[in-house]
Amino acid sequence: TEEALLACGLQGSLRAQSNTGDGLAESLLAREGSQASILFPRALGGRDEPVARLLEAGLSVVLHEAYSSRALSADDPRLEELWKRLAAGELDGVVFFAPSQVDAFCAMRPAATSLLSRLELIAAIGPTTAAALRAQGLPVHVIATRPTTEDLTNKILQAFS
Description:
Elements: H1 2-7, H2 21-31, E1 37-43, H3 49-56, E2 60-67, H4 80-87, E3 93-96, H5 99-108, H6 112-117, E4 121-124, H7 127-135, E5 142-143, H8 149-160
Helix pairs in contact: 2-3, 5-7
């Protein structure tokens, strides 16, 4: 996020205690007074917990749904190779970076969850994504300690070594 801000010519003035929406809410509360007004751009249907935390603390939150993620249909030709490889048992693991990815993938086909459950490794970028996997009845073998690609990659390498 910091890099994206810099690319737009903006300098962030606050960094989250942890790289999550909840961590950012906590950092804002530690810094801002209860009279602060916060613009909160997010994905359509994004998580409500950070927004609720700010509102409960008395901050004024201007919620703006700035973008949306749209899942492909299960029969999209771009997914054909994936379904074949999953069904043939040619993949060892899967990595999820957001609860919305878990939900979209599992909703694509009735057999999606069954195919994933056969994998040696299911990895999640953080606890919220891990919870979404468990809600789908899937095991979680790896959860990043810090929600970064580097940490998740290191955890996956450790799991396979």
